[in-house]
TrEMBL record:
It comes from Streptomyces gossypii. It comes from the Bacteria. This is YbaK/EbsC family protein. CDD domains: PA2301. Residues 50-172 form the YbaK/aminoacyl-tRNA synthetase-associated domain. Transmembrane segments: none annotated.
Length: 184
């Protein structure tokens, strides 16, 4: 199957690639509850040495700069309580941690979670974190631009491989909240 975006050799339905996904992502794909059929969640193999954005775009297609999204873990604090959440924004933007995230989570303070926390809590590799398979109960803040894209390239849970999904599937993720202006 030809990938709908990027210059990848071939794309396969993610349910056919569970053995290539880290356990929490494989579980999320296996039990996908959304209206978008799981077969429309596609997996593409990528070289982990080409993961940096500029090199990745050069290798796999210039259109990916406008059709990919980054998922980052944030830690929000309010009244001594810490909340972890994921934020998904178009790759051409950055997460508005001190504005949109703090407001959405009702936090006094919000910041990017430390690398060890992000990796340890998600069970995913740094640089491959995806909104699929996050811990139960986590808010997943999705920028409205990403949710409105026909197809979006996101991480697969590891630095090797990516998922290409319909943007509307992002709004169907467990805990998803679509936020205007999350990416600035």
């Amino acid at each position: 199957m030809h990938a709908p975006i990027g210059d990848f050799d071939h794309a396969r339905p993610a349910p056919d690639c569970l053995d290539l996904l880290v356990p929490p992502v494989a579980s999320a794909v296996r039990t996908w509850p959304g209206a978008v059929p799981a077969e429309q969640l596609l997996y593409v193999d990528t070289d982990p040495d080409l993961a940096d954005t500029a090199v990745f775009v050069e290798a796999y297609g210039a259109d990916l700069l406008e059709t990919s999204a980054n998922c980052v873990v944030v830690a929000a604090k309010r009244a001594g309580e810490r909340t972890l959440a994921a934020c998904l924004v178009p790759s051409s933007t950055r997460v508005d941690v001190n504005g949109a995230v703090r407001l959405q989570l009702g936090a006094r303070k919000a910041s990017f979670a430390p690398r060890d926390t992000a990796v340890g809590e998600t069970g995913m590799e740094y640089g491959g974190i995806t909104p699929f398979g996050l811990p139960a109960g986590w808010p997943v803040l999705v920028d409205s631009v990403a949710a409105g894209m026909p197809w979006v390239l996101v991480g697969s849970g590891s630095r090797r491989g990516k998922l290409i999904v319909p943007g509307k599937a992002l709004a169907e993720l467990p805990g998803a909240v679509v936020v205007e202006g999350l990416g600035i």
